[in-house]
Every structure is written in C-alpha cells, then in structure tokens.
C-alpha cells in the first residue's frame, strides 16, 4: 500500500515560519554527519521567500543558528526572513526502483562495473569480479531511466562527454550517469532514503533512519579520482530530489514496490497518490525489456552507431 506522510514519522527536526507556528514547512530525520551548515542548505531548497531574500534560522529558545560545522541538534527551528515564507513550489520527481532490463543497458552495467568494482558508498569490494560474478552488486542510474524524456528536454545529453557506443542506448545510459552499489544500497538510493552531497565533499546524507551505517561517510575517493566518474551536476540533481522528497511538508508518499504474485498492482496504483507517474514507472520497469526503442531504424537499416556530427553528441532524434 502507498503511505502518505510515512517519510515524516521518524522526524526529530521540524521547520516552521517564525510568523506561523501552525504551518509545518518541513522536517528532517536527523542522522550522523548533518551540520548546521548542511541544514541551512537543505532548508533553502524546501522554502520559497517572496520577495526573494536572505533568511536565518532560530531554535526554540530564540537563539540564531550559525552556518557552521557544528552538529545539528534535534528540535523545532524557525525561518526568519523579511519576505513571505512558504513551502517551495518545486515538486520532486516520483521515483521507485530502476528496473534495468533489456540489452540496451548491458553496456551501461558493464562499464559501471569495470570502472567501480565495488560499492562506492559502503566501499565493499566485489571479491569475485575476476570470475564475472556480480551477485549483490548493481549498476544504478542517478537520473532514472523512466524519465528519459525529461533527460532530453532538460539538456542532460549536452553535458555527457562519455557516450555509449550506440545511439540507440541513449545518453542516459552513459557511465557518467551511473554508480555501482550493493543491491540493498541501490534500493535505498532509488527511494531517496539517502543521497550524496557534492557540495560538501560528497558526503552521504541519510533522510531516514540509517541501518546501514553510511550517514556522514563519504563517496569512495577512488571514484572521484577517476576520469570516468559521474557528473557532479547529476549527483547534485539527485541530492535536491532527495531533499524535496523527504523534507518538504510531510514528504512525498512512500510507494510499495514489492508485490507478491496475485497482487492487485494496478488497483493499488490507481487508488493511491500520483497514479499517472507510478503507472509510467511500472509500465517502463516491467515492459522495457519487451520494447525495441528504434524499430523503424532497424527496419530501414539505419546505422544506430552514427553520431550527430554537428554537436558531437549522440542524436536524440527518433
């Protein structure tokens, strides 16, 4: 079942406008590594101030919170600003697990495996990689496959410098949009339970209780020193999505993803929140491996390896 408000149940940090104690702007499940400076940065994402202007935060005793490296403490905090303070209008992208099926992502998987060789969050090595055994490790997309249309319209293709070998794979399957993660960590990453803050040394911030002991640690430095590393802008995008999903208001709904045989999946989706977006994810995840994205090209004998010579990027034209 989908659960609205579930992301807020474990919160111990609450955010209000100083002039409106009754309206919750958002909150946070406090985990290791979150500093006062981090708190200012994420609050700035979940609020809009009109007219735009600076703000500062006060605690329940009226003390101003410094933007420093001191650990954030549990409690209620109040936004102080000259303008009107509201929850940000920006909406988060609905996301569930990225099902990686179909030959069109084989190259993505293989290149991420070759580059990383370990879970880049837990640092756990795959001791069996030399034998081609990858059970327990998965190549995760930072920007989800189900939003490939948005990937194109928002201009992400133009930022990719390491192109897949074939146009039909799509630039969203560049190694620069991937991380090798332990399978359980992949689930949490896709659900925005944690993210990586590239503006604070690539620190891992957990937005729900941290059972994996990764909060406050940092992304594997070996990955950051690799010329084929993920784009910083993509990690920043994921971090922003995680903040909006978990911290704004009561948070985005939590969606069930583990459906036993015989479950009424469509009924659960249609009766729950964000039905259209969830349907898109389910259809993509469960049918993608049956779909040929470029059937006309194959029938016409078009060379799908051909690049757009005008701009040096793989063409996104169908």
Throw out a few tags for this protein.
single chain, 318 residues, alpha+beta, 4-stranded mixed β-sheet, two-stranded antiparallel ribbon, 9 helices, globular, disordered C terminus
Give a short overview.
Residues 11-85 form the DUF7881 domain. The chain is of the alpha+beta class.
Question: What can you see in these coordinates?
Answer:
- It is a single chain.
- This protein is α+β, with helices and mostly antiparallel strands and 318 residues long.
- The two termini are 37 Å apart.
- The C terminus is likely disordered.
- It has 9 helices and 10 strands.
- The strands form 4 sheets. It has a 4-stranded mixed sheet, covered by helices on one side. Strands 3-6 form a two-stranded antiparallel sheet. The chain has a two-stranded antiparallel sheet with strand order 7-8.
- Strand 9 and strand 10 form a beta hairpin.
